[in-house]
Amino acid sequence: MMGINKILPLVLIALVVVSAVQAFQLSSLKEKISEGKVSVSSAPKGPVAIASSGGAVASSGSGASPGVTGIESLPTMVGGC
Question: Are 81 and 75 in contact (CB under 8 A)?
């Protein structure tokens, strides 16, 4: 069985590696943004289909009455009850 003296350095090394990778990704993202290669948009690009465990598929815009958006278009029951 591995003791805490062997596990702790492995965890610290993993955290340092992950943070180094994230620092590299952040610097390259900043560079792309400053060069104008990245555009930021919060608008959806099209209908999104989500499959549930029951096999039903919900799509944005399907099943809602016309003109009803937001919280009113959510189903009345959420969960497996």
Answer: no
Instruction: Kindly tell me if the per-residue pLDDT of 3 is higher than 90.
Output: no
Q: Which tokens sit at 81?
A: 């009850």
Q: Is the pTM of this model over 0.85?
A: no
Q: Which residues contact 73 (CB under 8 A, 6 or more apart)?
A: 63, 64
Q: Is residue 27 part of a domain?
A: yes
Q: Which range marks the domain in which residue 41 is found?
A: 4-73
Please check whether residue 52 lies inside any domain of the structure.
yes
Q: How many domains does the chain have?
A: 1
Sign of the alpha-carbon torsion through 29, 32, 37, 41 = positive
Alpha carbon of 67 to those of 3, 38, 50, 74: distances in Å? 62, 34, 22, 14
Q: 3-class SS at 51?
A: strand
Residue 58 within any structural domain of the chain:
yes
